Amino acid sequence: MTLKTTLAGLGAVLLTVSALAAEKLNVVFILADDLGWGELGCYGQEKIPTPNLDRLASEGMRFTQHYSGAPVCAPSRCVLMTGRHLGHAEVRGNLQARTRFPEFTEGQFPLSASAVTVAQVFQQAGYVTGAMGKWGLGPVGSTGDPNRKGFDLFFGYNCQAVAHSYYPPHLWRNADKIVINRIPVPGHAKQPEGEVRLEDWLGETYAPKLMLAEAEKFIASHAAKPFFLYLPFIEPHVAIHPPRESVERFPTEWDPQVYRGENAYLPHPRPRAGYAAMIHDLDQQVGRILAALEQAGVVDRTLVVFTSDNGPTHPGQAGTAFHIGGADPPFFNSTAGLRGYKGSVYEGGLRVPLIVRLPGRIRAGTVNDTPCYFADWFPTLCEAAGLPMPDGLDGESLWPTLTGKPTLRRTKPMVWVFPEYGGQVAVRVDDLKLVRQRLKTPKPGPWEVYNLAQDPAELNDLAADRAGFIRETEALLRRETSENPSFNVPLPEGSGE
Predict the structure, then answer these.
(1) Collapsed DSSP state (helix, strand, coil) of residue 259
(2) How many domains does the chain fold into?
(3) Are residues 233 and 334 in the same domain?
(4) pTM for this predicted structure
(5) What is the pLDDT of residues 153-162, one digit of tens each?
(6) Is residue 79 part of a domain?
(7) Could you tell me if 109 and 169 lie in one domain?
(8) CA 329 to CA 341: how far, in whole Å?
(9) Which of 371, 402, 433 is the last residue of a domain?
(10) 46-68 as b/e, with b when 16 or more CB fall inside 10 Å?
(11) Is 130 helix (H, G, I), strand (E, B) or coil?
(12) What is the β-pairing status of strands 366-368 and 372-373?
């Protein structure tokens, strides 16, 4: 056999491998941070333009009853990554790593070495895997390090607390701490008196620009290979910190009152405009990602998913009209009439936008009312890509629903067991939702029942007429809740009345 023949044969093999790679489905999963159900134009938002996400919805499927894994950041991401709901999740709250692992100075409670993430399944199947944004599931060097949980490349904030600033001292590229601001801007400060000036709270290097550029580079570099790209962007989580040019897009008359940091995070002279700017900037980032997919020529074989980790920012201390960080969700109708905000297992804290696009497989411009949540994404992505699923997943695959089958009839309940904000639980079975509050206080609240088909705002408690449902669902909740000493939620006997 001549060298020429050998090279020709090798070339044919490489072309075959390349063709097989091209047939595999890419995944881009974009996660907003604290984006409310009503904060996009395609979900009824009237003040903040979101043209790129609206276009994505017109090209794909928009869901009306999609729920996050938890009402706050870290546990929601744990449910998403591991496919196990809050009754089984390892991470059920925003616990800092140092409270259990004093060797770490930043980062949150880590996933264990045995926890399996969806990224690991894709990585083991030969996918190139990347994550750019906010992690929150274990410090660098811990068992929850993103490089140990399936990501070839991580670039961004490892720690949620550092992500309170958009001009932080550093970001992480895998195990390397990359200094980006020699004079960082803190995420928290107060200014009780004097003129609040925007320029006093702007730094030199804006972290979201770096993370977005890294994501665009990842797509361009791996267009010929199957890839799994996770983009947990930080907008619109406070502090309100967008560049001046973004703020100036919005009317000055929106802001008759400055925010002085009285409800945590940073002062801002135009807090409503600043908050709108962060959502507009998030939309622009999504537009850049979609453009990168087009430029790479992979749109038709890339599943794009966009959602949020929980509802919009909640009220804080009494005596101020501002929510935490100067946000004003009532002004923007951020929950579109749903009850509660971030930190609550009512609908406003859990129901979030969901837009999914895959040209040729997911019908464009469709609206889907299927109840679904973060635990469903592990099995959904595996089925979409034809990958094996590990045992013990709590969700159900949405792939048949996404590709045109009848609306999913759930066989598994949707469960939330949340130890923070007083201790809360919720279970959704069909259209009925069971809720209980203040479980970690001396006087736990009673069971509440809502029919979400008739009462999505959760205004009419049906508990008095649903004793049988309460008994059955409480028993189900107990079966679905495993012990977790680090994130304990007591389930007292009785009605709580």
Answers:
(1) strand
(2) 2
(3) yes
(4) 0.94
(5) 999 999 999 9
(6) yes
(7) yes
(8) 9
(9) 402
(10) eebbbebbbbbbebbbbbebbbb
(11) strand
(12) unpaired
